[in-house]
Prior knowledge:
binds zinc ion, 8 strands
Amino acid sequence: MKNLLVLSFLLICCGCASVYNPALGKNEFIFINTPQEVALGKALNAQMKLEVAVSKDEKLNTRLKTIGTKVAFNSDRQDLRFVFNVANDKELNAFALPGGFIYINSGLMEQATDDELACVIAHEIGHVAAKHSVKRLQVTLGYSILLSLVFNEAKYVDTKKAIDTVFNYVALGYSRSDERQADALAVKYAYEAGFNPEGMVSFFRKLETEAKKQGRSRPLVFFSSHPPINERIKYTQENIEKIKNNQRLIDCDIKICPKCKRTYSKEFNYCEDDGEKLTCK
Ligand SMILES: [Zn+2]
Ligand SMILES: [Zn+2]
């Protein structure tokens, strides 16, 4: 009875609370906070290490860590310590777990230039920054996660369900709009870290060639997710143009006047009071 009361209280509280997501420039309903996300990510990462052969190759690991750290430093998640792993796998693939655990396959690292690798890492960091997996886990775990947050006990979390959820998108890709957001953030983070964002486009082309060469009916995971490769190349090129002209790649929901601090909805570009150009909150 007490549990139910606490839970309904929490649900009511959460219902009106939303958290600002800097990667997307808008408020979202997120009740898994950073320490909880990291705890969940660690549990999933332990499971992942049973499935994936992690490479001990010093050269590959140093290269990944050097580039990865630069990109992470320029991302919207400064509350996380990203961990980079090389997976011993020939397939051109990469994935991220919640909490900032990034995996890049050795086969991808061998074929990618530094700029291309930076863009792939930036895409994965983009998924973490936009909290794509956190939002998915909130939906699939909903009730059990809420209970565990109330009582601070992991026993309420359906770990098998959490693992299934994460492994499912690791194997099949995220939704179309999530991939599009990660592609936009990839351009932004790679560019801000000093890499050439064109690396994203040239990497897409490499993926395309590789898939054709293998004559696969099932496309490679990194681009199996729904936006077709030519569409991804097209909007990525547009995003590169935008970032070079200092334009935002993702529209924000709330804008603020830097002068008078009035807030506006996204359709406004200038403040009605002083004509100041509005920026994302
Ligand atoms: Zn992706
Ligand atoms: Zn103003």
